[in-house]
Amino acid sequence: MGDSGKRQWNVARELIDDAEALQDIGDKARDWLLCHGVLIRTPDLPNSSAKVQLCTTFLLPCPMPRSEFMKALELEPAHNSLIQRVAWDTEFLRECYKTVIEVDSFTRGLWNVLMKLNSEPLVQPVSLAILRNDLMLHQNEHECVLKQVEINTIASGMGGVPRILPEFHRYIIPQLQLDFDPANVAENGTLEGIGKALSQAWKHYGNEKAVVLFLVHPNERNVFDQRWYEWATQQSEPRLRVVRRTMKQMSETGVLDADTKRLFVSDVETTRSGPLEVAVVYFRTGYAPGQFPSETEPSGSSRRSASRESSNATSLDTPPLHTD
Predict the structure, then answer these.
(1) Which residues, in sequence order, are CB contacts of 255 under 8 Å at separation 6+?
(2) pLDDT tens digits, residue range 71-82?
(3) CA neighbor of 200 nearest in space, from 191, 212, 216, 214
(4) Rounded-to-integer distance, Cα 240 and Cα 212, Å
(5) Number of other residues whose CB lies within 10 A of the CB of residue 25
C-alpha cells in the first residue's frame, strides 16, 4: 500500500474511533451529496422521485499510481475497437458460445435474433457503443497494477451521477485535513462524452424531427443517472428530444415500417398527434430474461424492433455486442 493509501486507512480508523468526528464529517458529506443530486429512488417507491436516498459513495477517492491511471486511459480506445471487432465476428462468437447456446435459453434467444438479422439485408450500417470497462487495483509485494474485471456492452450505467464525485472529494479532503493535494483528484468527463456521442448519432440519422429513444426498466430506481445522460445529450444538441419507453410499451405500441424500416413510437408526452420516428435507440434494459414482457427468450418483436439491422435507427445495443 502506498503512502496515500496508508493515510486514508489511518484517517478511516481515526473516524471510526471518534464518534463525534464521524458524525460531523458524515453530516457534511450527506448534505453536500444531497445538494448536488447524488441520488437514487428508494426500494419501496421505485417509480416515484417523491422519496429518494443517497447513492452509495466513497468518502475518499481511491489512491492509484498515476502511471496505471494513464495506461488505462491510453489503452481504452484500442480495447473498445477490439470489443467492436469481436462483436461482429460471427464465426468467432459461434465457436465461443456453441456450448452455452445449448443449455442457456436466454443466450440462445439472443443468438437466434442475431442469426435472423444476419439473414436480412443490412439497413443501418452505423451503430454506437457506450462501453464501461471495469478495472480494479491489484497489489502485492511486487507491484500495484490495474486488472480488468469485466466489460459492460449494454446498459452501461453510472456515467451520470459520478460526474460530480471529483468535486465532492476536493471538498471533503480539506475537511479531514489530509496531506493530499485536491488537484490530484482525477476529472470525470464521461457524461459529456456520452452526451456528444448520442447527439452525433442523432445528427447522423438526418431527421431533426426524429427522437432519441431510451429503453428502460418499468421500476427504475437509478433514474437520475439516466436523466443525466438525457440532459447531457440535449445540452450537446438542444434541438433533439429524448423519450423513455419500457419493453412492454415498445411491444404494444412500437411500429416498424415494413417498407422503409423506420421505427416509430407513440407520442404520449405531448398532445401532438401522430407517431414519433426514432433516430437512436439506447438500451438501459434487456440484458436479463425477466426484463422482456412476455417471454423468457429475447426473440419477440420488442427486442427486434430496435435492433440495428431491422430498423433504420442507430442502436446502442446490437445483438452481437450483447452476446459478446
Answers:
(1) 263, 264, 265, 275
(2) 999 999 999 999
(3) 212
(4) 7
(5) 17
